[in-house]
């Protein structure tokens, strides 16, 4: 019984405030980077669209048949 008490006691530690802050910052940075990559991708697509439109390779007007 004494061994189980030691294991249970060793498994529970108080949360480290510094660790929690670091984990939060890292999670925020990772989410921010993914969000920024999403916006870079949208910006690239928009630029490609307007470049094709300017060169006349595509049109937004339907052709009459």
TrEMBL record:
Subcellular locations according to the entry: Mitochondrion inner membrane
Protein name: Cytochrome c oxidase subunit 5C-4 isoform X3
Similarity-based family: Belongs to the cytochrome c oxidase subunit 5C family.
Keyword field: Membrane, Mitochondrion, Mitochondrion inner membrane, Transmembrane, Transmembrane helix
The organism's place on the tree of life at top rank: Eukaryota
Main location: mitochondrion
Function comment: This protein is one of the nuclear-coded polypeptide chains of cytochrome c oxidase, the terminal oxidase in mitochondrial electron transport.
GO annotations of cellular component type: mitochondrial inner membrane
Bilayer-crossing regions: 21-37
Record-linked InterPro entries: COX5C
